[in-house]
Design goal:
With 488 residues, this protein is an alpha+beta fold. Helix content is 57%, strand content 17%. Helix 5 runs antiparallel to helix 6.
Amino acid sequence: MRHLFGRLLLSYVALTFTALLLGSLLLLPLVQNYLQNQQIRQLLRDGQEVARAVQEDLAQGASSRQIQRTLALLRPFLGAEPWVVNRTGVILATTPAFENVVGFRLSDEAVARVLGGEAVVYVRPSPQLWGIPVAQKATLSVAVPIFQGSRVVGAVFLHRPLEGLEALTWDLGKLVVLSFVIALLLGTAVAAYLSRRLGRPLEELAGLAEAFSADPEKPLGEEFSALERDPSLPEEIRQLSRALATATEAVARTLEERKRLEEWRRAFIADVSHELRGPLTSLLGFLELWQEGAIDPGEEAQILQLMQTQGQTLRRLMQDLLDMARLDAGGVQFHLQPVRPFEEAALLFQEFKAQAEEKGLRFQLEGDEDAVCRADPLRLHEILRNLLTNALRYSPPGGTITVAVKKQGREVVVHVKDQGPGVPAELREKVFERFFRGDPSRPAGEGSGLGLAIVKQLVELQGGRVGMGENPGGGADFWFILPAAEAA
């Protein structure tokens, strides 16, 4: 960031220096040219005034000496040396300082032009005109014709040294250089301020980015948001802060999700291993006893029944794992249509009738038999089957399992209640997690631990929600809600 600050400062200073230098190089010639043109215009006006005065003298028949006195009177107001020449180019009169050139004949193209009636401007780098020293430095001269009627009878020449203009230009140049230096210093100060103003938030962003790269799980959203909310910062810096805040939050969420999935994967492998170990150990143990001939012939039927039970447990576990994998991968298709949960529950009561009678359990179906929800019939059947299987497993002999259906506005609520031991309130949020067991001492062969997790997935994928409460008569109360639908 120090390098960035230096580069920004250097860029601002270089830009300021270049702009001022170019401005000075362009300004000085323009000002010099302007001042020179101003002097030319002034000399032309003065030459015309002198020409009129001399024309009046000539009209009155004045001699060269009289015209010279007129020029001497006008000299203090002109700031230039005046000469008067006749129509042949001979100098008739000058100021006293140049009396020695009177009678000198001027002849060149410029003299011919002015005697032809055209005003002429001379800018001569030499201080001499026609070999006559008229100044100590370069000279600015104008020539204005003298008319009598429409006829040119002579011309007035005004000579002004350029040293005054050069001195003025030099003073102006010094002023420009001084202004240049002051402006450069001010520009450098402003550049330093702007560079620091831009560099500070960039340094903070770089520091936050380094902190995030060192510890991606560290929450930095508030720090980025503080820069985003700072109204003194340029909009581009605030947008960058906003983008970095969004990116870091997304990365943090991804890492958190990855961490959660990794923890779930480890727990899943451990749980699956635990669930498989029990049935497999039993099967392998029975097979070893069979191979060794250690099983009495009278116990063979019972052993085979136990082996069949363990095999069914394995098959159920594998089926539940496959179902869960398909749900996770989005491979389960839902054909939503109007369905009556009351009728589905009645069918399952018939299916589980034998198991219920074996345990002395009683089924009870109550509520709105005409309530219609929007669901996949096969998936609704699976939801109720898992909940009823769970209720049959935990209900004590002689208990009652109740299914209640009720329409509430645009939703249909279904309760499955049992009179078993229930689940402590602090564990109810976890009952729908995979491989959850409310009673850790329960044998591994009793259920896969995936039934309620599958129920949750199936309900939510059909636009519903699921939960658990406490049965007022004791036991558990599992419920799920699905969107209501019009009867078909």
